[in-house]
Amino acid sequence: MVKKELPKSVYIHIPFCKSKCLYCGFFSKPANLYDVKKVLNAEIAELRKSSFQKPAQTLYIGGGSPASVGIDSLCNFLAGVVNLVGNVDEFTVEINPADADENLLVNLKNIGVNRISIGAQSFVQSELDFLGRKYSVEKIDQIVTAAKQAGFENIGLDLIFAIPGSDLKRCRQNLKKAIQSDVQHISAYSLTYEKGTPLEKTKSAGKIKAVDEDTDRKMYETAIEELTMGGFEHYEISNFAKAGFQCRHNLTYWKNKYYLGIGPAAASYIGDWRTENISDIGKYVECIEQNKKPVAEKIKIGPLEKASQTAVLNLRLMEGVNLEEYKKKTGFDIYKLFSQSIKKNLKLKLLQLKNGRLSLTKQALPIADSVLCDFAQPDGLL
Amino acid sequence: MNIENIRNFCIIAHIDHGKSTLADRLLLLTGTVSQKDFKEQMLDSMDIERERGITVKASAVMMLYTLNGVEYMLNLIDTPGHVDFHYEVSRSMAACEGALLVVDASQGVEAQTVANAYLAVDSGLEIVPVINKIDLPAAQPKVVAEEIEHILGINKNECFYISAKSGQGVPELLEAIITFLPPPVADSATQTRALIFDSHYDEYRGVICYVRLISGRLNPGEKILMMGSKRSYQISELGKFMPGMKKIETLAAGEVGYVIANIRKISDITIGDTITLAKEPAKKALPGYKKPLQMVFSDFYPGNNTDYSHLRAAFEKLSLNDASFTFVPQNSPALGFGFRCGFLGLLHMEIIQERLERESNIEVVQTAPTVTYEVVETSGEIYRIDSPSQLPEKTKIAELREPYVKLEVITPKDAIGSIMKLAEMRRCQLIKTDYISSTRVMMEFRAPLAEIVYDFYDQLKGISRGYATMDYEFIDFEAGNLVKIDILVNKAIVDALSLIVHRSNAEARGRKMLVKLRKAIPRHQFEIPLQAAIGGKIIARESIKAFRKDVTAKLYGGDVTRKMKVLKRQKEGKKRMKSIGSVQIPQEAFMSILDTSE
What we know:
- The structure holds two protein chains of two kinds.
- Chain A is α/β, with parallel strands linked by helices.
- Chain A has two domains: about 10-255, pyruvate-formate lyase- activating enzyme (Alpha-Beta Horseshoe); about 305-375, Orthogonal Bundle (Arc Repressor Mutant, subunit A).
- Chain A contains 15 helices and 17 strands.
- Chain B starts with 5 loop residues before the first strand and ends in a 6-residue tail after the last helix.
């Protein structure tokens, strides 16, 4: 019998926010409407009952805004988590500048958190206001400084570009500011109008105009340019890191390795199954209390689907697909599964083959999905 | 029955003028159909006919009526009235001696009234003019009678005034059929000759031939010979339509009925052919037999829910009952395997399309209809082609000829100006204008069929607020300044998009095609140049810009399942299009570019 491989990465979702940003597609609810303690206890219970490698390698606390539950609740919760998960290599907590202060950061450091991901988004106040972020530009600087002072050596921050009203000049300014804050990791995302969000509704109603396609593309290219010049290595489509500071937890996703997701709406990938937890917080808690698995959806990943997902996810990384490793992991020769797609994209210079790796070329990046979709299903299968 | 007491007649009328209603009324009046069994438009057997209010298949029904103590046999032959089916109409008329010309009292004489009336005159039929719908408030019977006199030279005092709907005047008309229409001429020849004026296919009994006995007689069991096709059969059943099929013992000269003779395929017999007895064949066949001329061609390719074999099966089923619809396998590098279909005209094509969808529930990709061209090569060889891709190299062509038709339009006079403009745009030459009444005009044009085959009729209706009507008839092929437009997508010619047009509007047409293509083809990862060329020279250009951004910003654990679905759909979308080189062209694009509307 094959020993079931256990996930080495754990993700914990804190489904609470003080206020919902206009562009957010994540699942979260206002903390004050719930018995937060009860929910967090349920998550501990779910964690206790789950199988994973101990100690795990990466632990990631995301949301929502973890700190919105209050510093005490959060720290107690995290202490409980650490108890179960052990001493991990990379322990990340997401921070919303509106909900953070020096005190929080010091406490987190004491619990063992060694990586902070700050959702800065923009260094332009009007843009922060547009997005519905509830803090000032100055606050971002304060939090970055406080994190460093608290002893964090692995700090990341998120940027959103192509916000309506923005232009190339402003985009560059934002990037330069982010680089100046001397952090170790920067994620740069083009503003996405997720279905169902207030932002998307405003756009559909014609009240706001999205940045045009060409400018959006140029902004992306500018981000790559500035961040690379600023000493960051472009390692994934939207992610940049100084040497040694790539986000190991997220690499789990892109290398298509197993991970455990805890909490309402959290996703897991273990063995042949991808699962998603119940989003409804009340129902989630009920499930846990009834000693049932809080799974809303589960999908079996067969060998061909796994091969497709591995190809798509690997290609998100600049290093691309390592052909040898691909074969070991999926059992397939990628050329056999995707021969036409590979040939076509190589010819169009959207893919390149270098040192046994197949990866996206520079010019493919802005239109990566048009290449990636070719790997969504093996050729000849449709 | 004494041949003197037989009357063979047809009803000719413009669409919706009341032909079918009158036929219904006659059936009831003669007791051929009881009130209990009656349903409207009894003789229109196909759903499509009933719904569209048109007669597609001819029907023959025998009615018996006693006048002044004498029993008469009245054979009503119901004819298709539409321009597309001229040949069928003329063959039905060849089976008659008389015709009731029905004109709507509120509409007056229309294009098909005229066209069919002339056909009747040419066939030597005695015509009884009938003005119908006199009960309508808008009816102007006297005006219409004047129109009839003016156009057809029939004395307006000979008109009968009826309302087929209410029955008013119909008994008098019935009498008139007997008193004014002549009986069949007794043919002294002893050899049997019967005219096949129509047929239909029955799943169980095979082909049913509708015949008019000209001389001699037919009996069940006899061996017959088709004089045109030279095929022989044996009569298994003989009968009449009353209106349902009823077996009889013998069919005599002057009579109308049906013959069943184990004929498996409708294409085995030809309308207009002569049936004679094998044991004593007639010396000469009846005149007027010819193969129906197809005027319009279109390629059909299987759509998304269909494959080639389904389409073939569907066409085979349709052709069971339609000998003038043809389909031959066709292959296009762009669209794959399909069929080149031939039709008598646009209405015929529409009927086939509709029947295809309705009866076989099939989706098709169809190219816009084209006409036949006649090529005269420099070598002297002359032949016809029905697709631009069959055109030889320019250097080999001495002359390219296109079909011309005599186009007759009847319109209220206030639309004359717009119609003249439309005609001019379509290269039609005005031959004459004739006032048929104080408000209405008949215009005759010599028109290239290619210019009117697609949407001329729709345009005509549009500019005349629906009042104008048209009819056309093939005249000849005339050499024209015709050129072939080739369309290049991403620098390669796509033959399925080639079109033959007149030099005068070639550029405009080419440009229009490119605009439609540009809208129909999705953006690709690279820019796609579109070009229209004539004889290798580019006459128009368009370009489809590449898409600039198509990347998902965030793809983390919880996004995988959803994103994979989206990407799969994106890949499937690509598959649904036809690849021409590295360009994906959706099936709709092939149709849309050939549409010349703005």
